[in-house]
Amino acid sequence: MSGLDELTFVKPADIEGRSFEIIGHELGQRKLDPENEPVIKRVIHTTADFDYADTLTFSPHATTIGVKALAAGTSIVTDTKMAQAGINKRVLGRFGGEAYNFISDDETARRAKERGLTRSAISMERAAELGKPLVFAIGNAPTALVRLYEMISAGEMVEPALIIGVPVGFVNVVESKELILGLDVPHIVARGRKGGSNVAAAICNALLYLASGNERG
Prior knowledge:
Elements: H1 15-27, H2 37-47, H3 52-55, E1 56-58, H4 62-71, E2 75-78, H5 81-86, H6 89-94, E3 99-100, H7 106-115, H8 119-128, E4 134-138, H9 142-153, E5 162-165, H10 173-181, E6 187-190, H11 197-211
Parallel strand pairs: 2-3, 2-4, 4-5, 5-6
Antiparallel strand pairs: 1-6
Helix pairs in contact: 1-2, 2-11, 4-11, 7-8, 8-9, 9-10
């Protein structure tokens, strides 16, 4: 018997639905907070990693706050082009929001070199200069979270509508996430080392789909 004989045929349109059925089955009797369940399952769907059922940490009603903000036209700022690319901009645009990323701008590069900071940190300053509430989706750079923490603590920016803090890695990753967990600002954080731009985008999309009235987009 070849490996092909063991494959299950699933119509392309049914693949996502079948995936979520498998996720539900493998979660078994585990009870997830109903408010946050669609976000957790979307991240598991993106990563095939069930650890996120334990590590995704939500401030009170962060999911509902994020959904309402996006439905009202709040824009998203990402720390990477990958996260920006992964966000469903068709749905975001339907509400009047945009997906910003400043990492490749000449002005970002100039300031970063002049001040000896990372482009990711400077990108957060560029976002703050927009002067409006934003959803921050950070999937790669702990320096972005640290700079957000510094600016919020110093009252140097409009309070974010939501911070999604899910950078991945080993250096200052855990510590930067713990800083955000200590803020009195709505947040969704993946505790520990795991995360990534795909996780940041998945959380944004989960919130957007909830805002549109369809958990699956």
